[in-house]
Amino acid sequence: MNLKPLSTIFNRPLGKLAVGSVGGYTIVLLLSPVMTRLYTPEEFGQFAIFSSIVAVASVFMSLSLELGILSAKRRSEASRYAFLAVATVVVMTLAMCMVLLLLDGLGVTLGLPRWVQALAVLSCLIASLTSIAINWSIYSRNSNLAARAIFSSLSGRSVMQVGLGYLYGGLWGLAIGEIAGRFLALSVAINQRIKYSLKLLTTRKKLTSADSAAIRPYAFYITPSAAIDTALVWLPAPLFSIFFGPLAGGLVAMTQRFGSVPLTILNQSLGQLFHRRTAEKLGSDNAYLLRFVLLYFGGFLFLTIIAVFLLIWQGEAIFRLLLGEAWSNTYIAAIALAPLYFFQFVSLLTNRVILVAGRANIKLLTSFAQLCALFFSVFYAKSMNFPWETALFGAAVCLALTQGLTILYAFNLLHQKNDGGRPAPSAVEN
């Protein structure tokens, strides 16, 4: 075996990020059988509401401005996006606290205790700052630091939740473990650069017209689209928990745990680097991007087919052995959601093409169509008194079809002729 090419691969940015992501995901997988014996499906169903709030709200916390760091052509432009993202997180954290106080005054609980809602705000703050720090590290070509932060985020939360589950259990262990793991990731991502971070916030005193122009497309198009995409990943579990009972929600949440983590891995490694490559090549070398996406599409299609056949053949026995008797029906949710996850994996790349091409408005429309498809399918299934299994299959099919149309639109963009070497358009036209 020739170790030199292998070491070369792992020393590249993608290799480093992949190692950190895969390592973290391995810890998640290894600890999942332990967690299912410390927490019940009902507790996971309730925690799914907390997780979905954090996942969706975190997108709004920074208005997705950290994506501007990756699209930046110059370091000064990247610094501006970093400053705007951090400042926006601070403002949105205060706004989120005000909203929760208002909802509390109106008697709206969101299905969670007040202390859990407070932890959700804190989790959003930490997650948003960590994302900004990781994107800055990727832009600065410090892939080692980004990889360590990703590993800490993925593995730290599971380790903390297992430890607290053993000591205390319940929703408290899941929520506090989430906070502790995210804080660990943030401390790694900052990596003793707190002075630089504070300088970033304090050196600029007012918002310029250029800052306003940079924020506008993110606020109107990119952030709502990203929030909807995040909701499409996280909402099925709480929706099924609310409409079909905590058991169904817990089974969907566990499937989501297995599916969303690799999505996160690829988004924070291959997705981020593909974003940079698309910004460099779109419009000048579309054929390269198209070949890469098609190869990626074919590889995941093959893996999805293998996974579905394996789940149909031995899925119930596998989940019973790994997670325990109470979780054996998780295989049904996994089969139902497999086509949807396949399209979501592909969209990690095609969405970058759409955004870098300056078609954020189109992306927003397609994301909204998918959200409507999710709610319509769930509400219709509930009104017809379908069992949760039928409802989940129906929702997954509707979402997969609408996601597929978005992917076809991205392929159409890549099929367009090159323009003779014009620099690739940014996701934001300044």
UniProtKB/TrEMBL annotation:
The UniProt record lists the keyword Zinc-finger: no
Transmembrane segments: 14-35, 47-69, 81-103, 115-138, 170-190, 288-311, 331-350, 362-380, 392-414
Principal place of residence: membrane
Domain of life: Bacteria
Keyword Transmembrane: yes
Localization terms from the record: Cell membrane
PANTHER family linked: POLYSACCHARIDE BIOSYNTHESIS PROTEIN, PST FAMILY PREDICTED COLANIC ACID TRANSPORTER
Name of protein: Oligosaccharide flippase family protein
Membrane topology classification: Multi-pass membrane protein
Keywords: Cell membrane, Membrane, Transmembrane, Transmembrane helix
Pfam family, one: Polysacc_synt_3
